Amino acid sequence: MGKGMILGTMIHGAGERRTDWRHPAIPSDASVSFDFYKQQALVSERGKFDFVFVADAMYITPQSTPHYLNRFEPLTILSALAAVTSRIGLVATLSSTYSEPYAAARQFASLDLLSGGRAGWNAVTTGLGGTALNFGHRRDMHPEHGIRYRMAAEFTEVVQKLWDSWEDDAFVRDKKSGVFFEPEKMHEADHDGEFFSVKGALNIARSPQGQPVIFQAGKSEDGRRFAADTADVVFAIDGELEAAREYYADMKKRAARAGRNPDGLLVIQGISPIVAETEEEAFRIREELTATVSLEEALADLGRHFDHHDFTQYDPDAPFPDLGGMGANGFQSDTERIIRGARRDGLTLREAAMREAAPKTPFIGTPEQVADRIEEWHRTRAADGFILIANLPVLLENFVDGVVPILRERGLFREEYGGTTLRDHLGLPFRENRHARVAEASLV
Amino acid sequence: MGKGMILGTMIHGAGERRTDWRHPAIPSDASVSFDFYKQQALVSERGKFDFVFVADAMYITPQSTPHYLNRFEPLTILSALAAVTSRIGLVATLSSTYSEPYAAARQFASLDLLSGGRAGWNAVTTGLGGTALNFGHRRDMHPEHGIRYRMAAEFTEVVQKLWDSWEDDAFVRDKKSGVFFEPEKMHEADHDGEFFSVKGALNIARSPQGQPVIFQAGKSEDGRRFAADTADVVFAIDGELEAAREYYADMKKRAARAGRNPDGLLVIQGISPIVAETEEEAFRIREELTATVSLEEALADLGRHFDHHDFTQYDPDAPFPDLGGMGANGFQSDTERIIRGARRDGLTLREAAMREAAPKTPFIGTPEQVADRIEEWHRTRAADGFILIANLPVLLENFVDGVVPILRERGLFREEYGGTTLRDHLGLPFRENRHARVAEASLV
Fold first, then answer.
1. What distance in Å separates the CA atoms of residue B21 and residue B65, rounded to the nearest whole number?
2. What is the pLDDT of residues B78-122, one digit of tens each?
3. For residue A72, which residues of chain B lie inside 8 Å, CB to CB?
4. Which has the minimum average pLDDT: A3-12, A144-153, B2-11?
5. Pick from B106, B207, B117: which is nearest to A72 by CA?
6. A235, pLDDT greater than 80
7. Helices (H), A197-331
């Protein structure tokens, strides 16, 4: 479980939900407001959080959720945040399906170096099939789910090879002798695989944490296998204690099966806490958020999980429609969850859509109540920590100023940062360079 | 010539020249020091410069110049600098041969928005043939010179289409009505060309300057044509007044031939001024810089212009070798210049290599002397302005504190920033959205 509970903030601009931006307490241009991102990062750093996190996608239609239509690109905004923060980790989402490993390795290494070792990469394979339309002639077809994960595994392998291009003491920079680096400590990747052929070396050194931290959130079988093999931090948004505990146990078991120490794979949950001074106030905020959603919007939002399927064609008050194989190559885990839930509870389409659209969280109430819930999830091995998706700025502040002090009193969360890198915060060891290990081994 | 003289700084870490890092006055880790980049940007902003500029390349060998081996990636470092500066423009190099237009358009738009309209893109086609080895399986062959420029033209067309995805008043964000944007002000790129197929729309809005400014530095016939058609700012490093004047006249003529107002294509020169309180001190600094170069290093540096050709195989004191067609697909304009110079002056290989390696600039001397030279170049239409490649931090400071006040006294350079965007600084108009123009025209 690392050194203690993990806490991070997903900075999500004008909101993850289609209608969050209509709430009076959120600036409706938050997704493209540097001041908003900076403020959320500074509040999170004031709380001594482990990291801030920026999600991503690369395909929109007029039906997309407002935040998706117009938002900062993750690596640029996190690089800007690196300059106005000093300790908090910076986790950017980047697709292994629609990027080049050499370019990706560089950008993360650059963020890692300029932030003093605070970078993380949330590796995604891109669920939105339409993305291929924005990357045509080089990759004309959206690869299917299984291939995307094979690509992701190879992509990550290449990126990590490139991140080890230079041993940590390669750059001696001796002005007198004129020796800038030791040639035997420069290593080409020399990768030639199924999807990528990359020579190297990377043109940037490693950071104080060795390599950026790898995050992953795939919940499908392929996604879980990839995470168990490769990720440092894996996360899900399960919403319920039992589901979270199952996910936690499964991921730890998979890590062990992959030959790893299960403590080295941190399993965390994305939660959307609604904290206020009183329980009444918390539920009032929830009501305000729900009140912004119309059925039409809820249906469009539902469609996003099914590759922008048009749900307005069905009677909203008939049972949830039979969609055949729909969504099998989209955000697989979401589609399965929604369909399963609708069948289990015998929901109409309207009910399923509103259930999906309404903010629903067990982490609602007073600081004490939410701290209790957080502690319960942590203690019963449902999560090593949490990513807060607190769209309203006031909800993040209430968590930092209300819940975090209680977690500290209970010895569950740090008083101060103990180190300087994201790995330090997470209790993950410095990532040794594979070539340095080889060199040492050969001396024995 | 715009509103006045243009001044920018190329932040070049540990130095453009192979041995600059050995000079006592430069931090040898400058290429990966955020503090160094920040300091250079702040000094430039104190001087009210138009922009800072970061060059790039994506292929290294053990023979590469030290700065190339280990440096920040341009978009990440400039995004970080955006957060610690307030007015100065931020120009990043990105290759149209080894990037995706959708990803590139996003990153520049993101930098542009988060900086309040200060982004510029230096479009390069990538001269280093080895780069293909780092981007294998998607682009296995390094495209030849002419194809690279055809790609660049189409790439830029796509990027600019994507930058016009949203009209400036598309996002109304009316919380009451629930209207986030006006659908008729969202425009797909719908591009399907020789090299790229990109649907759009881009998932980020335009900035206060409309579109990022496009820089270009191709000196070949293809490069000049591309710049005349597409660039806002074109630059060269000619080193001599006559060559600069020829280049200036040629580019302005080409802009006119392309149907543009020649004032809309700014032609600037990269210079490496060596300014000190006295002439003696300036020449002493130049000597210090030359003293760090060995023949071996000079030959390796020369090789970089010839696709890493090994020049140590030749007798250094024999005439400059006949290289056949060598370099015809590399940094074409550099190879031509070096070969032509060596033949014209009957140089040995050693002489040609040391000529290339030694710091040579007409902009050397006291602040008054250098200001005179600057004024002469500007007045005689050799340049609309200058990019300073001042590797030693002290040389940038000497220019800002010594030369700039003189230029101001003479009315050649601004006292204060007159606007907030890079276009404002350069005297370039706000870039209208093509769709907004169409809408207006249809009303007439």
1. 10
2. 999 999 999 999 999 999 999 999 999 999 999 999 999 999 999
3. 110, 113-114, 204
4. B2-11
5. B106
6. yes
7. 221-230, 241-257, 279-290, 295-304
Cβ-based contacts of B94 with chain A (< 8 Å) = none
Burial B50-85 (b: 16+ CB within 10 A, else e): bbbbbbbbbbbbebbbbbbbbbbbbbbbbbbbbbeb
Closest chain B CA to residue A65: B180
Residues A114, B203: C-beta atoms closer than 8 Å: no
- From residue A413, how far is each of A40, A91, A365, A404 by CA, in Å? 19, 20, 20, 7
Integer Cα distance of A338 and A307 in angstroms? 14
As for the ipTM of the complex, it is: 0.90
In sign, the C-alpha dihedral spanning A400, A401, A404, A408 is: positive
The per-residue pLDDT for A88 is: 98
Instruction: List the beta bridge partners of residue A55.
Output: none
Report the C-alpha gap between A79 and A71 in whole angstroms: 15
> What is the distance in angstroms between the Cα of A433 and the nearest Cα belonging to chain B?
17
What residues in B contact A178, CB-CB < 8 Å?
19, 22, 292, 294, 297
* Structural domains of chain B in order of their starting residue, each with its CATH number: 6-277+362-439 (3.20.20.30), 294-357 (no CATH)
B361 annotated as ligand-binding: no
Average pLDDT, integer, range A279-303: 88
- What chain A residue is nearest to B61 in terms of C-alpha separation? A201
Q: Which residue of B has its CA nearest to A30?
A: B173
Cα A212 from Cα B215, distance rounded (Å): 32
- Mean of the pLDDT values across residues A418-441? 88
| Residue reference for tokens 């600094």 | B285
Q: Is B414 in a helix, a strand, or coil? A: coil
Q: How many CB atoms neighbour CB A238 within 10 A?
A: 21
Nearest CA-CA distance, residue A236 and chain B, Å: 25
Q: Where are the beta strands (DSSP E) in B297-393?
A: 364-365, 385-388
Q: How far, CA to CA in Å, does B220 sit from each of B13, B332, B402, B440?
A: 27, 7, 35, 39
Judge whether residue B161 has pLDDT over 70: yes
Rounded to whole angstroms, the Cα distance separating B388 from B273 reads 7
Residues of B in contact with A166 (CB under 8 A): 70
Determine whether the interchain pair B178/A134 forms a contact, defined as Cβ–Cβ distance below 8 Å: no
Q: Give the one of A113, A166, A199 whose C-beta lies nearest to B133's C-beta.
A: A199
The secondary element (H helix, E strand) that includes residue A135 is: none
* Angle B434-B440-B444 from CA coordinates, rounded to 5°: 135
Give residue A222's region: left, alpha or beta (phi > 0; psi -120 to 50). alpha
Q: Rounded to whole angstroms, what are the CA distances from B130 to A200, B44, B127, B134, B144? A: 10, 34, 9, 8, 12
